[in-house]
Amino acid sequence: MPERIDFAALIAGHTVVIEMINSGDAGLPVLTQLLRVAQPALGAAGMAFVEFGPTGGRVISATGATEWTVGRPLPADDPVTVCLLSGPRVQQLRADRLAGAFPGELADRGLRRMVVSRAEIGGHTVGSLHAVYADDATEPDDQHHGVIAYLASCIAHMYGDQTGLPVHGDGPVVAALADGLAVVDRDGRVRLWNPAAAQVTGQAAAQALSRPLPFPIPPSGQVLDHRLPDGRWLRITSGDVPGPGALRVVTFRDITDQQRRDHERDLFVAVTSHELRTPVTVIKGYADTLTDHWESLTDADRRQAARVIGQRANELARLVDRLLSSAAEAGPGDEPPAPFDLGDALRAAAGDLPAELRSRLALDLPVDLPKALGHRPSLATVLTELATNAGKYSAPGSRIEISARPDGQMVAFRVSDRGIGIRPEHVERAFDRFWQGESGDRRGYPGAGLGLYLVRRIVEQQNGWVSLRPRAGGGTVAEVRLLRG
């Protein structure tokens, strides 16, 4: 360290800092420039500034031998934090005599001496300025203490003007942001990481600081939607901070739910438009035929046309019911579950199925079947969807078996077919809304992909569960389990 402070260099450098402020620069670039000016003038090995917030401090700017400390947190209960926030405003400390990991790291690097001054506004501490000296340096004197106290007061004045400060991740403004916020330097390394950033990414500040961002940064002023390896989506924006520091502010938020809703909306429009178009086209064609050729048609032709129109109208009605139920997340509502005769309910629901399906049913329902606990009216929807599904994926005229049995505390019923079956990897995906298997299946077996989704919703709201499995010898078994009444 020089015998005395280089006041000429300090004043010249401070003039540059003031000119930066007058030119519109603020915040970290100005603060860092001030530390760069002070370090050689004071003969220090490094300078650092710790900003304090409600939950502790963090090194937000550092130069020289302490540059590696940028981003280092100082929790409120850390012995160093307690020491800095108490006692005289200006202190000379030895790192090797302080408790805690941080002083130990300084001492291990041969940086055992430091002069510290708090930056205060109206008695409130906003931070602390540190001049750190090597072991072989001359002992700092009162002049050094006075200059460091003066520089800390200058920094406090910057905080009073609120020109880009505070930047502390736990500061009142940054901490209150709902969006993740990071400040990165010219090398792309994180210098600031607010609490929302930790929540959005799952990376604590200690994991993120001084490391590259875990996602790409869009060009300044642009927006980027990026998918993380875990499948979540982030919407990322960035902007450059004015000044020579080449800092960039990056904000980001989790838009996974929005992406899912957008995808489901697009899929909903595509699927429903396709499914609505077919019956509407058939109805319109037969209606036009009846209108334009009524006199030339036989009675049998007219009855057939009316029959087809009725069938297709029923298909439309069922599709609309599914869509409305899906949009409303349909279920039994607030009606409390009650015991009901499962066998009787299944027979009644089977009797209401379309004639073509009824003719294919084979019922195996014991007369002594225990009651089930749930909502009887919703069972008709469950059986209709399962039976319709079985009929769609099996040959016309083939048997669809409906059976029931007690099983411990549960009572179960099954809808079984001898159709094309279901792949083991599809037994869970089949219950997803709008899912219909491969495109080939979708072309061969039309449907909105809502039936099984509604079945699972209804059954699980009654504290039961539903499953699919391949049937031995070919076909599919759908099983619904409800609590015994």
From TrEMBL:
Quote the catalytic activity from the record: ATP + protein L-histidine = ADP + protein N-phospho-L-histidine
SMART domains of this UniProt entry?
HATPase_c (SM00387), HisKA (SM00388)
Q: What class of enzyme is it?
A: transferase
Which parts of the chain are coiled coil?
none
Q: Which UniProt keywords apply?
A: Kinase, Phosphoprotein, Transferase, Two-component regulatory system
The UniProt record lists the keyword Phosphoprotein: yes
Where's it found, cell-wise? Cell membrane
Q: Which residues form the Histidine kinase domain?
A: 271-485
InterPro entries from the xrefs?
HATPase_C_sf, HATPase_dom, His_kinase_dom, HisK_dim/P_dom, HisK_dim/P_sf, PAS, PAS-like_dom_sf, PAS_fold
- The residues covered by the PAS domain are 173-211
Does the entry feature the keyword Lyase, yes or no? no
Cited Pfam families: HATPase_c, HisKA, PAS
Q: Under which EC number(s) is this enzyme classified?
A: 2.7.13.3
* Lineage top rank: taxon: Bacteria
Protein name as it appears in the record: histidine kinase
Q: Which organism is it from?
A: Micromonospora musae
